[in-house]
Amino acid sequence: PQTSGMNARAGILALVMIAAPSMAFRMPVSHARMAGARMIGATKSLPTMPLRLPRAAARHTSYGLTSLRAMGGVAPMIGKHELRTEAPKVQISMDKTAPEEWEGDLLVMPIFAPEGDDKEALAVVDGVAKTLDEKSDGAVTEMVEINEFKGKEGSSAIVRLPKSSSVRKLSLVGAGNATKFGTDAAIKLANSLAGTIKAEKAKKAALVLPAGADADAVKAIAQTLLVGLYHDARFKSEAGDNKPAPIETLHLLSSPMEGAEAALEEAPKIVEGVRLAKDLVSAPANYITPTKLAEAAEQIAKEHGLECKILEREECEKMGMGAYLAVSQGACEPPKFIHLTYKPKGEVKKKVAVIGKGLTFDSGGYNLKAGPGSMIEMMKFDMGGSAATLGAAKAVGALQPDGVEAHFIVASCENMVSAEAMRPGDILTASNGKTIEVINTDAEGRLTLADALIYAEETVGAEEIVDIATLTGAMIVALGPLYAGFWTSDDEMTESLKESFKTTGEKAWHMPLAMEYAEALKSPIADLKNIGGKGGGSITAALFLKEFVKKAKWAHVDVAGPVWSDKSGATGYGVKSLTDWVIKSGK
Fold first, then answer.
1. Segments in 170-289 forming alpha helices (H)
2. Rounded mean pLDDT, 414-422
3. How far is Cα 381 from Cα 356, in angstroms, rounded to an integer?
4. Rounded Cα–Cα distance for residues 492 and 67 (Å)
5. Fewer CB within 10 Å: N-end or C-end of the chain?
């Protein structure tokens, strides 16, 4: 093995000499390492170890893969595809026109399920539906009977009306229980609406708002519809039938409603953040690199007047971010530590931070993701936390809330396998001096978050911190694909996050920060291990992160499940709730 390794290195050197014969011979990184120890963080345990070249210097005195990529030797070939999708062009507005008088391509009528325990009972045609039924010569009643329509949430039926009608098509959509039309029901209704609009290719549509709908429901409907109309054909060579819905206008038919206009004004600004998150998570890792995430942050700052600071590797080294940089050291792509700051115009009542895990690709490192179920081909979504963070930054920048100074932080990098990658058994030193024994290189996200948490509390001075990450597969096992789990160190943080999740309809479950499991993180040779025992993996991951927060109120949100849908792809999960939490923090 040693001989073959030397032959491989000789081959690399030969390739370099052929590609650039005029260049002087330089020592390979592997040979340079024989002269001293890798710079892995300050420690007093090895006082006699000789110094060696810093990593940055070694890179410039060798021809490893990093140098070859810099020379253009191994850079992946990528097409000239746009990295952003186009926003839906639909205009959503309130309209007090009576449903039976409205004119257009598609009229969507919510129908509630009948009260009582009879599961076979058909939906009752009454109220506005009855008026419309009379105007359309019994079309609504006929649809209910023929389709055995029961009004269950998510159900729908559609019919083409006679040419004499002012409406081309009428769609019935199940609205569920009439006494429970809240955010969840509004989201389900809007999802059905989006599906119907796309299927029917309507340009002008209207939704009859059901009884009980308020401004919050209007906001949820508008947001969900806009997200539902998301269209991504960036990496298709030909559009074919894969075209965006042609919808141009959507009227929400209702009597005047307090707060509805403001809700419709806010919704697109928040959805722009969701769309950014979906764009970032959906794009492959050869397009979305740490550098591209940094460029996205800079664009947000430019558009919305935020401050943007990008810390390069050398700056992170000076700050002692040994945990974060250890994850990045096996990759050709340079790490980028991203810090966006939103400051209100008036008084700052609270300073908060949102931290997103930013692994643009996670191979697992030397604990390689391999075999069925490893999901290595899906590890482009391991930056879902950073996508939610940047999406929230965009939404907050657009909404300009009062009273809160918000910091959005991403320690972005790749976790790759190479001669320079961290190894199982390595001991890392975080920027607060704590040492970490690496038991598994695939538990890398928490290492990047550790230094980001220290930065948020000690450098930024955040009073409250939320980190969001696709951190553990154990989270999917525990709560499935729809729910995030969240942990908090403070009861007030618990309640504020619960309120935001409830308001936005993003599903999350409060998990126990069980200190009984902290023993599993103890290392005999370092302060901590980076993983715990066999069970409770998501809990021990949260306990690990807690070690890097001193006094600030803190919450950890694990979005390994809801960040991605097998049916529809990237979800943009977290943007709405984080935005809501930041805004309410200033009130």
1. 183-200, 215-228, 260-282
2. 97
3. 12
4. 50
5. N
Environment class of 271 (CB within 10 Å of its CB; exposed 0-12, middle 13-18, buried 19+): buried
pLDDT-based confidence at residue 245 (cuts at 50, 70, 90): very high
Select which of 219, 446, 553, 576 is catalytic.
Answer: 446
Q: Active site includes 84? A: no
How far, in Å, are 14, 132, 152, 209 from residue 172 at the CA level? 70, 12, 11, 12
Which residue, among 152, 417, 381, 402, has the nearest Cα to 278 in the 3D structure? 381
DSSP label at residue 86: P
Catalytic residue selected from 369, 502, 507, 546:
369
| One-letter identity of residue 182 | G
3-state secondary structure of 65: helix
Instruction: Round to whole Å and give the CA distance between 199 and 241.
Output: 12
DSSP string, 270-333: HHHHHHHHHHHHHS-TTTS-HHHHHHHHHHHHHHHT-EEEEE-HHHHHHTT-HHHHHHHTT-SS
440 membership: H or E segment, kind and range: none
State how far the Cα of 191 lies from the Cα of 173, in Å rounded to an integer.
Answer: 10
The answer to whether 55 is a known catalytic residue is no
Instruction: Give me the pLDDT at residue 164, please.
Output: 83
Say how many CA atoms lie within 13 Å of 102 toward its Cβ. 28
* Phi, psi (rounded to 5 degrees) for 95: -145, 125
Q: Please, which pLDDT band fits residue 246 given cuts at 50, 70 and 90? A: very high
> Which pLDDT score, from 0 to 100, does residue 163 have?
84
Dist CA 71 CA 122 (whole Å): 70
Distance CA 412, CA 333 (A): 10
**At 153, phi and psi to the nearest 5?**
-55, 130
Is the per-residue pLDDT at 74 higher than 50? no
pTM above 0.85, yes or no: yes
> How far is 356 from 465, CA to CA, in rounded Å?
11
Burial label for 46, CB within 10 Å (0-12, 13-18, 19+), is exposed
Beta strands (DSSP E) in 374-482 are 404-415, 427-429, 435-437, 464-469
pLDDT in tens, 266-318: 999 999 999 999 999 999 999 999 999 999 999 999 999 999 999 999 999 99
